[in-house]
Design a protein that fits this description.
267 residues; single chain; 4-stranded antiparallel β-sheet; alpha/beta; 5-stranded parallel β-sheet
Length: 267
Amino acid sequence: MMTGHEPTAGNILLVDDETNIREGLKATLRKDGHDVRDAATATAALSLLATFPAEVAVLDIRMPGMSGTELLAEIKAGWPHIAVIMLTGHGTLQTAITAVKEGAFDYLLKPAKPEAIRVVVARALAESRRQREQAALLQALQAGLERLHRLPATPPFSQPNLAASTAILRVGDLIIDRAAYEVRFRGQAVALTPAEYKVLVVLAERAGSAVDYISLVRAGLEYDAEAWEAKELIKRHIYTLRQKLEPQPDQPAFILNVRGVGYRLVR
């Protein structure tokens, strides 16, 4: 019986040249609501994959023509997020272990008990979905970075003039002259990019308090992002600011991490 922690039903591909084994596996997995398609050869399986969005593939190692391990390589090349389970007898156990090292998710010994099949397939389905979600998040992050790079830069002279009483920001040895768009640290002028300058101003305005990733990206990069994306986007600018302001950038004492929140400028 399933425990309730497994993922919902998914798309399963079975590949085995023995009809009775395929039918038994199909009956077992369909009880859990999976959409199960089957093929007797690797060639037929590859044709199925052209239209069937499999999440898990269960492959027999020994098949006529292309073997299960050869099919594994084809699947990993064309559909990397499919979790592959190898079916093996005792005579091909070492081959199955090697297949796991080469990218298979797991293996099952024939004849596999129905409960063992269901548990391993559920685990494989969860792994397939984890990999797909990770890939989607990385793709979204890359798309966000590309959009950011296409945004027009804001030149320094476009900054609004501020009243003299509010133009100077002082935080310890840091002085920011917002009217002149100048930064000095411990008496030395510091050359900053427009994005670095904006991030530093936000941190200085709220010195001593944590500033979250989203606020830093919105103010410094003029870009609205989700928290996970903002965290990745701001890292590079904090890194370069530390290189220019911290005596020991790898041991920051001025711009500090606030774990899970953002960054804080020490007063």
